[in-house]
Amino acid sequence: MPSLGPMAAVNRVFAAQLARLPVFGPDGESIGKIRDIVAGLRLDQLPPRVLGLVVELATRRRVFVPMLRVTSIEPNAVTLATGSVNMRRFHQRPNEVLVLGQLFDARATLRSDGTRVTVVDAAMEPTRTRDWVLSKLAIRERGGIGLTRRRSSMRVVAWNEISGLGLTDLTGQPQGAAQLLMLFDTMRAVDVAATLRDLPMKRRHEVVDAMDDERLADVLEELPEDDQRELVAYLADERAADVLEAMDPDDAADLLSELAPDDQGRLLGLMQPEESEPVKRLLEYSSDTAGGLMTSEPVVLTPDATVAEALAHIRNPDLTTPLASMVFVCRPPSATPTGRYIGCVHFQRLLREPPAELVAAAADTDLPTLSPSASLTEVTRYFAAYNLACAPVVDADEHLVGAVTVDDVLDHLLPEGWRETGLYDMGTG
Fold first, then answer.
1. Which CATH architecture has domain 175-284?
2. For the residues 265-270, what does the mean pLDDT come to?
3. pLDDT over 70 for what percent of the chain?
4. Which chain positions lie within coiled-coil regions (predicted)?
5. Which residues contact 129 (CB under 8 A, 6 or more apart)?
């Protein structure tokens, strides 16, 4: 089975091979065993995306582990990346299918000739975007009954060669919400948010129930404050906490700051400590200061990192464009608040340096930094003066505490309620 590192070739893994495989953490600690694989079904013929694994812990509790946390799949074990496992009990979403529990033995039809078949296994493959999809199905033709029943050989076909395995076939999800989910797959989060606002409340809630946490987090970040509060109030507390964990810390802090203190404290208490701590730190700052505007998760490297390593970090597709424009060089620890701040390197400088060069040698040590208490006006002038998309925020003890991005500055400079007005209807008057 394949290693899942960034340079790994495309490989195919059959789901049956993963059943009951032990799962280990990065240091070799035992996590549990794989009980199932979760995939997100679609209405079209494209292969479903593999969302993650259902892992049974030693305590018999079953938890969900996203595929992005999986670093390697070997014949005898699966290894996870650094970070704690979310200990909340796994609950299946309406648009999700359990590959071992629901897809295996499902009855379907070959599109080419209408032959009735039974699914006996499913193969998943990684894509260039680091997603995994159910690309192939192992099927067996369904024979007759009694003495006329014949054994048929198993064969492997592409997902789109089979019908009868769609959203409504396997999950019974309402057709209207399923169609919207298929449409939303092709849209940017900001456009999904605008569409969601126009839906009747019942349909809006159906769609929210069917979205996975990461997608809902992206959409929630683009909604006006009133709509954010409404949806958080609708969600069960545990799921609301999961979605907050999937949001960027600065966006999660902005949302929580709009809630009543009791609601804020309850949701923070349900979040994993490593996810809630940066959000709590951001909540200490006023929203119209650099501290309130910043994200606590910029790209931070130690001085002995190479230019090649820095370029690999900013290629991460999960980074926003402004955050990918700048690498910050700090003494350990590299998580904010970091060790002593040394300087920053713009991605254009990285492209001009030899790959083996140390980032410390390329760092701009003269660029002024922002203090956490800098006002919105001061931050705006800073961006205008230095023509940046991302800027360091450094405290009085020379620790990098975060970075402000130009999109967050614009978000606070635009008139209140600009999201309700729409992208193209704000006018010039």
1. Alpha Horseshoe (1.25)
2. 95
3. 86
4. none
5. 317
Q: What's the rounded mean pLDDT across residues 201-215?
A: 87
**Can you spell out the DSSP letters for 301-324?**
E-TT-BHHHHHHHHT-TTS-HHHH
Structure tokens at 97: 């299918």
Q: How far apart are CA 331 and CA 341, in angstroms?
A: 7
Structure token pair of residue 111: 């599109």
Would you say 299 and 326 are in contact if contact means Cβ atoms under 8 Å apart?
yes
- Residue 406, judged by CB atoms within 10 A of its CB (0-12, 13-18, 19+), counts as middle
Instruction: State the angle between helix axes of 189-197 and 175-184 in degrees (0 to 180), rounded to the nearest 10.
Output: 150
Beta strand 326-330 with 299-301 is parallel
The domain made up of 299-413 has a fold known as CBS-domain (3.10.580)
Instruction: Check whether 144 has a pLDDT greater than 80.
Output: no
Which residues neighbour 277 within 8 Å (Cβ) at sequence distance 6 or greater? none
pLDDT value, residue 420: 52
- Domains in the chain: boundaries: 1-171, 175-284, 299-413
How do 154-158 and 162-163 pair as beta strands?
unpaired
Q: Is 70 exceeded by the pLDDT of residue 167? A: no
321-357 per-position pLDDT tens digit: 999 999 999 999 999 999 999 999 999 999 999 999 9
CB-count burial class (<10 Å; 0-12, 13-18, 19+) for 318: exposed
| CATH architecture assigned to 1-171 | Roll (2.30)
CA–CA gap between residue 175 and residue 389 (Å, rounded): 42
Task: Give the residue carrying structure tokens 């006023």.
Answer: 286
Cβ(10)–Cβ(126) below 8 Å: yes
Question: Please, are residues 378 and 292 in contact by the beta-carbon 8 Å criterion?
Answer: no
**Integer CA distances (angstroms), 278 to 2, 253, 265, 275, 291, in order:** 34, 9, 14, 7, 12
List the one residue out of 245, 400, 249 whose CA is nearest residue 336: 400
Domains 1-171 and 175-284 belong to one CATH topology = no
Q: Answer whether residue 287 shows pLDDT above 70.
A: yes
Distance (Å, rounded) from C-alpha 119 to C-alpha 55? 23
Give 306's strand partners.
358
